[in-house]
What does this fold into?
Amino acid sequence: MRFVRAAVTFLLTACTSLALAQARELPDFTRLVEEQGTAVVNISTTQAARRANVPQVPNTEDEEVLEFFRRFIPRQQPGPGQRPESRSLGSGFVISADGYILTNAHVIDAADEINVRLTDKREYKAKVVGADKRTDVALIKIEASGLPVVRMGDPAKLKVGEWVVAIGSPFGFENTVTAGIVSAKGRSLPQENFVPFIQTDVAINPGNSGGPLFNMRGEVVGVNSQIYSRTGGFMGLSFAIPIDMALDIQKQLREKGRVSRGRIGVVIQEVTKDLAVSFGLDRPRGALVNSVEKGSPADKAGIEATDIITRFDSKAVESSSDLPRLVGSTRPGASAPIEVWRKGAARNLTVTVGELQEERIAAREPPRERKPVEQVANRLGLVVSELSAEQKKELRLAYGLVVTDVRAEARAEVRRGDVILKMVHNGQHTELKSTDQFNKLLAGLDKNAVITLQVRRGENTAFVTVSGLADKG
It folds into this structure.
């Protein structure tokens, strides 16, 4: 009996010790919240109903795009007997004792009145210093002094897996604290090419927009901006703007009231594994240039369509989404070295960066209906025809083959009306000027060959990779 009692006592002691050890390993956020929570503010806005922004559904049938990245500002429509105003809630944090506050651009978008509420219940009217929709960063100002200020951290030192804390006003519940870990860094999102987002699993909900993301040292490392959700609520995927980028934006907003970004005038697309093989590149990396704007900085620097940009300003371009960030963060007028992969070899160029006015991305427009003379289907399952003189003049092309039919066995993702401009195989680029030339090129390839076609659709061009061809007839 004594043995049993001793054994039970031993087990209880061991379990207690283990529990205490585990408890000691879990983070304690109390001090962080006590020291930094007072610098976090609640932001509410009011706007006249006549100016209320009604979010527009994208003109697309892509279900993923329709569901992707919902902004989280609850907007209320006036009911019977109510004033014709809409209200939204968000968060922000004080970055200087004299009243400058960082938040999201979408929190204060189109607001007629902005109200800031501190943790001690003081309320102020705020004015907008500036807002940048491309990065979703806004700077506002209240007339106050001696305010508590957050400490700034370095997002570059963040490690995936480390603990982070968000403080904000989800659904209007002021100074709500949620915690989680860094899930990924440098995350690119659709339509958001200028921000290398910090992804976390911190619970972020409507009203958290614009609030700070802290590391365990109590330093702000990000501005909470977006969530991925199919329901409109938190689903474990949250995204924050790195604080170093947000501070650079606010500095420009404070000094000039606007943000200047670089541009070089290229339309690009991602380099896939098959494209890398076709272009003779060692691995999928870089940004493939679809087209170069005439007279643009890229054109003047000697960059050509079919070049793959692998480095910009001495920084590696691992994916196409890296390039807009690197170029955008370069001051207009600055000279930057650029490395391109062209016809199987690396080349070094220098580009003088221009100023971004309107960004363009590779897209595919509906083709114009044409009635060229039908030809026999080739090994890709495509029926192609040479461009007539009238078509060349209309399309402003010197060469190319128009697709007149796509057979069921087609191996290339092209459509009727597309114009095939070039074929790339093993790093060799060939301009396509006749159906005979194209068919002979295809006939000389192995059944398992990987090729890339440069395709013109509407006003845009893109590269399409084909893996495998039909057997020779």
Remarks:
- The longest helix spans residues 2-25.
- The chain is about 20% helix and 35% strand.
- The two ends are 90 Å apart (CA to CA).
